[in-house]
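Problem statement: downstream parser choked on a complex file, so we are re-checking the raw output for the flavin-adenine dinucleotide run. The parser issue turned out to be on our end (a line-ending mismatch), but while we're here, posting the original submission so the record is complete.
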Amino acid sequence: MYKVKKYDVVVIGGGIGGYYSARVLRNGGKVVALIEKDKLGGIALRWGALPVKKILDSFKGIKKEQIKEIRENLITKWDDDLKKLEKKIINNLLDDEIDIYYGDGEFIDSKRFKIGSQIIETDYFIVATGTKPASIKDIPIDGVNIITHKEAIDLTNIPKSIIILGGNVEGIEFAALYAKIGVDVIVIEKEESILLGNDEDLVFPIEENLKSLNVKIIKGIGARKAEIGKNRVNVLLDDGSIVSAEKALVTFMRTPNFPKGIENTKIKTSKDRIIVREDLLTDEENIFAIGDINGILGMAHVAIQQGIKVSDYILRDIPVDISYEVLPRAVFTFPEMAGVGKQEWELKKDNTPYKLGIAYFKDSWRGWAKNIEEGFVKTIIGLDNKILGIWMVGENVSEYIGLMGQLIKEERTVDEILSNLIIHPSLTETILEALLQSKNEKVIG
Ligand SMILES: Cc1cc2nc3c(=O)[nH]c(=O)nc-3n(C[C@H](O)[C@H](O)[C@H](O)COP(=O)(O)OP(=O)(O)OC[C@H]3O[C@@H](n4cnc5c(N)ncnc54)[C@H](O)[C@@H]3O)c2cc1C
């Protein structure tokens, strides 16, 4: 016999997108249920982004001789830390009086979802079920030797050596992490550059740092096949050579988590996503899809923003409107890279002329006081002096980029920024310095 319960909104998927949507809706007065198939938190809070950053942060600014101690400390406390994190997520949801259901349920139709013996009825659904790692047939993930980020984040099981398949953001952050804790790392990237889609001068310091940690980076050659030997993975590359390590981490492919029973609704899917309109509605007028599952941009802050915007629509009828082109991006390595707006390669591709300014953190008064040696800010402006892009490399730069997308969205000019005071002495003065310079530089393109 089924029990039936009615909600205003049901969120399917307790990752970062689902978590924020559920809380915003509940705080706005809606009666909300959250359904999670596995563990709350999803990739960002439980299986990837946040744990990776926690480990990387632990190694910031420390001396070489402290590495062993920090590593041991992290490993001993790792299980406990994750349990604390999980408890925090659950408590926040329960404090908000959100009903949590665990299990792999299914759509009955566009208004009803079945989970165990419970039928949940609702006015709106938000699908936020994310994606999971995938691979090619000849590189089969077994979770032991050929692993994904879910196993790679488990610090209680660190290999002596690892091959990272993919020099993308995920691959390069794991390369930095593993190299710091003393693992022999090989990165295989089939394109000619790691962190593809970023200007060479931004990638260069990160690549140099990885090399200084003895990371071997093989570029321009893909991985074709992986075979598991005795405690070893042998990876055959496109040029016929073989590289070998204790484990291989696959980062180059993901596949969508479609909820069961989707065929009982009018929701349309493609091979890799749920298809949504610009306002994030599916082909059902009461079912939204947010975060990685809609394939728009696979980043945690995109999932959060989409969740908040959809919630605003449900609560207050505010149209969903998101400017993806001014969302900030970051790579959490040593040093970090962060920025917003256009990069040079994009402007060159579009034949858009621009002016460039570069200023170094070490040349600012605060940089001098802090003994900062590395890092710079690169500003890109148009011929009308409007800001097109602000990019940075250096320690903690992900913290400075914050709301700068708004400057680009509002089409602010260099003069408008220069007439606003920035704290002295601070490292953000380097941004002013770069902007000042870009104004007077010659036009490129
Ligand atoms: C290693 C790594 C590092 C990353 N670092 C960053 C970073 O620094 N910054 C950044 O912006 N992004 C980062 N990302 C990307 C970011 O984690 C994702 O964009 C984000 O997690 C997407 O959130 P989501 O809520 O859409 O999906 P997910 O986080 O995937 O959450 C989906 C949830 O739905 C659940 N679920 C799945 N199917 C069902 C079902 N049928 N029923 C109920 N529940 C279900 C899952 O168990 C999961 O809990 C990183 C990704 C990885 C892999």
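For whoever reads this later: The two ends are 70 Å apart (CA to CA).
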